[in-house]
Design a protein that fits this description.
alpha/beta; four-stranded mixed sheet; 38% helix; globular
Length: 313
């Protein structure tokens, strides 16, 4: 049976707290914080676990925060493969102002990664990947990891016969989009960057998605449209999947939850359109909860039932 392997090159300890009113130059009394293992691929693995699935979670880790990160994932019973680094794993913080229900998110850049360390990650992938596995790489690159890192990952997946799923941004996305990618999940702004468009209207969205697929070695393109849902584009299919309106409590991990739902749907051998419906349900479910709790299956199932009864555009 195909496995899911997630790769996180810039993981984090996500600290979440609340405060009754954010004011400058004041000592603000916060509530007791909660801690979660975070970073793109780690969030995907956690969401997969919430959906009843399993994955091998591969990530860089170093210092006391790296040890704490392992402890947090051990508590979730998530299988891990750690690439040790000299630098300390970063810590992010999210603070919700309870007087306005606004959330403030502070993300740190992450430790500088040595060449031998990111090369070790590639060697580890070569040993782990097997034919028909799904390799999910999600998140930005930390300092000193070359922009073509995900191209190198793509080449390993291709040699091994694994399916490469990528969710990143900036120059690493631009470069990796020119390699072999099974599924790519940009948002609207990232699709604009890939297609050299400063902005994308509803009228141009499908034609740009079609043009991208014609000019790139990508089997599935899923464009995240935020509260509008997502666009599925393949060489044979084009559909916009709507998202239900819910009360938003946190947007942290919504995209990673969406990826988790889609890769689980691939494991379950669902159609591509149902894959995106389930992914949208997972992304929507994630924003219904505070902090970095991600999606929960009971919420996902209800939202998925609603989405299935809506007409795709």
């Amino acid at each position: 049976m195909a496995r899911i392997i997630t790769l996180t090159v810039n993981p984090a300890i996500d600290k979440n707290t609340t405060v009754a009113g954010i004011r400058p130059n004041s000592k603000l009394r916060c509530t007791e914080p909660t801690f979660d293992a975070g970073g793109g691929g780690i969030n995907v693995s956690r969401a997969i676990q919430n959906l009843g699935g399993s994955s091998l979670c591969s990530y860089f880790a170093g210092g006391p925060n790296g040890a704490f990160l392992k402890h947090l994932l051990d508590e979730k019973n998530i299988e891990q493969s750690i690439i040790e680094i000299e630098g300390f794993t970063r810590e992010n913080i999210a603070v919700t102002d309870t007087s306005t229900n606004q959330q403030f998110r502070f993300g740190m850049p992450g430790p500088s990664i040595k060449k031998v360390e990111w090369q070790n990650a590639l060697k580890q992938l070569e040993l782990q990947l097997e034919k028909d596995d799904y390799l999910v790489a999600s998140g930005k690159l930390p300092p000193n990891v070359p922009d073509d890192f995900y191209i190198k990952v793509s080449h390993i997946a291709e040699i091994k016969g694994a399916k490469f799923i990528l969710d990143t941004s900036g120059d690493p996305l631009l470069k990796a989009a020119n390699s072999k990618v099974y599924m790519l999940k940009p948002n609207l702004a990232e699709l604009g960057m890939l297609c050299n468009e400063s902005s994308i209207t509803d009228l141009k969205l499908k034609s740009l998605a079609k043009a991208f697929l014609e000019n790139h070695d990508c089997e599935i393109l899923v464009v995240s449209l935020g509260p509008k849902g997502a666009l599925l584009a393949t060489k044979d299919e084009m559909a916009q999947i709507p998202a239900p309106v819910v009360h938003q409590k946190s947007t942290i991990g919504a995209g990673d939850s969406m990826v988790a739902g889609m890769v689980m749907s691939l494991i379950w051998e669902r159609s591509f359109s149902d894959m995106v419906r389930y992914g949208v349900a997972c992304g929507t479910a994630a924003i219904m909860h505070h902090g970095t709790q991600l999606c929960f299956k009971k919420d996902v199932d209800k939202l998925y039932d609603w989405i299935k009864n809506q007409k795709s555009i």
